Amino acid sequence: MNMRFVAGVALALIIPALAYAGAAQKPVLDAYAAQAKSEQASFAGFSAERGKAFFLAKHDASAETPSCTTCHTNDPTKSGQTRAGKDLAPMAVSKTPDRFTDAEKVEKWFTRNCQSVVGRPCTAQEKGDFITFMASL
Amino acid sequence: MSPIASSSPLPPVRVWDIGVRIFHWSLLVAVSVAAMTGFFGSPDSVAIHLIAGVAIAYLLVFRVIWGFSGSTFARFRTFIFAPSVLIARAKDMLAGRHTRYLGHNPLGGAMVLALMGVLALILMTGTVVLGGILKQGPLAFMTSYATGGLVKEVHQALAFGLVGLVSLHLAGVIYESVVGKEKLVKAMITGNKPAISDVVLPKPAAARPLVALVLLALFSLSGIGIVASLAARPGLGVPVAAVDPLYVKECGSCHFAYHPSMGPAKLWDGIISHLDQHFGEDATLPEATRAAIASYLAANSAEHFDTRISHVLANANPDDPLRFTATRFWTRMHREIPASVFTSKPVGFKGACNACHSDAKAGLFAPQNIDIPEGAFK
After folding, report:
1. Given B280, B283, B348, which is nearest A85 (Cβ)?
2. CB contact under 8 A, B282 and A113
3. What was the ipTM of the complex prediction?
4. Which CATH superfamily is domain B3-231 in?
5. Span B191-216, average pLDDT
6. Measured in whole angstroms, how far is the alpha carbon of residue B73 from the centre of its chain?
7. Are the Cβ atoms of B348 and A116 closer than 8 angstroms?
8. What is the CATH number of the domain that holds A81?
9. Per mean pLDDT, which range of A7-11, A81-85, B225-229, B369-373 is the poorest?
10. Which of A1-10, A120-129, B180-189, B227-236 has the lowest mean pLDDT?
11. Within a 10 A sphere around the Cβ of B244, how many other Cβ atoms?
């Protein structure tokens, strides 16, 4: 069996899998992209890097919840725990495939948690970066 | 008289048959367990207290049957005396005169009846308390929490009365041992006493264990049947409907979905009207959802139920009125639990009721359903 054939088969299997991992989140991301464009003319796509920085950042809006990581831990592929002791499924899409697929649910939690942690509503860019980061893991 | 004859004047005779002896010592154990758990127990020792109570009930029923079917000195007729005899006995004691009875002396016999009577009253009041407060047992279907609370005072007063009677009983045994030179404790173990009596002996009777056993079996079967069928009825004011799935979904995603019967309407209103400041976090809901949950909570608040949890948490802490774990009741009930248990991984925080109360979800909180997870003590 030659190597090019093996690589070809591997790619043929992996590429659709990769595409699939983000496909379920696409409608939610597309909506945030459209919103980001209207909020900010210079919008040029979401960035997993910016999303990661946002996720790890410490804010000073609340002593109880200074960061996303307070409940979700530093590693989004791991389970978290609410301050009230309830387990939270990993944020990483690879671990919890139905994350960021229900627009209403996504908006409910961004509304609550941005207010609790950042102290203001998040921008569409921040939300999209966040989801892009979680889908990249 | 020879020296041997003076140290044991007469051959011993069987006074206390095996039924009386087993009853006596079993009752001592069961009453001790009930008293220890009742006076000094933790919230979860109720289960043992109840087992002890059931054991005492069986022992009393047996003793009543045995009072008619046991051997001579087990029978009530041999130790129930006229009041005049009781008074005469008391006068004799005060005058330092000692009359020896082979079985119970008149005051001792009266003590047996008093102990059994008070125990029976303790069992009856205990059943009312169990029904009213814990909504368990044969009276749960008809007993209110308020009645249970009132009768609990009586139950406790009777328990103190029992402690007094037991003390008198022990004083009587000591008096008989010192003044009458009796070996009463040994007699209650071996069943034998020296065959000497200052009074005419009662007409002898043979024990009829088979009759006693049949009667006890009949009583047990009918008793269990009646108690079980009554206990199977739904308790007065106990929630039966499943908790609203929308409420569980929305409120249960961050914390244990507290049963609505745990909080009075005022508390729920305080919570559902200020979701943007929900114990330090924003828990805002879409208005339609919020309104639906608000009306569910108002229609199922503590005022609509009669369980213990619906009453005890209603007394809010003025400094922190919306937090169940700030109430005096919560603090008192959990005082023996190390703080580290609440922050442990399997529990998480103080308000995770269901981590240890397996029936908290249904708003029941039975003391028998408490189980602190293993990992919580690490």
Report:
1. B348
2. yes
3. 0.79
4. Transmembrane di-heme cytochromes, Chain C (1.20.950.20)
5. 94
6. 31
7. no
8. 1.10.760.10
9. A7-11
10. A1-10
11. 18
What is each CA distance from B175 to B79, B116, B168, B172, B187, in whole angstroms?
Answer: 18, 21, 10, 5, 15
Domain ranges, ordered by start, for chain B = 3-231, 245-377
% of chain A surpassing 90 pLDDT? 72
Give B138's Cβ-side CA count (13 Å radius): 13
Bridge partners (DSSP) listed for residue B194: B12
Which stretches of chain B sit within 8 Å of chain A by CB? Answer: 252-256, 276, 280-286, 345, 347-349, 351-352, 355
Cβ contacts below 8 Å, chain A against chain B, sum to 53
The alpha carbon of residue A48 is apart from the nearest alpha carbon of chain B, in Å, by 26
B282:A81 CB<8 A: no
pLDDT tops 80 at residue B375: yes
Across the interface, do B254 and A84 touch by the CB < 8 Å criterion? yes
pTM of the model: 0.87
How far, in Å, CA of B118 to CA of B106, rounded? Answer: 18
At A48-74, the pLDDT tens digits run 999 999 999 999 888 889 999 999 999
Give how many domains chain A has, as a whole number: 1
Instruction: Determine the structural domain holding residue A80 and report its residue range.
Output: 25-136
Enter the tokens of residue B84.
């005049």
- Does A64 sit within 8 Å of B348, measured CB to CB? no
Question: Please, how many CA atoms are within 13 Å of residue B27, restricted to the half-sphere of its CB?
Answer: 21
**Alpha-carbon distance B15 to B26, whole Å?**
18
Please state, in angstroms and rounded to a whole number, the distance separating the CA atoms of residues B232 and A74.
51
Q: Which of A84, A111, A115 sits opposite B352 (nearest CB)?
A: A84
pLDDT at A51: 96
**Residue-level pLDDT at B282:** 94
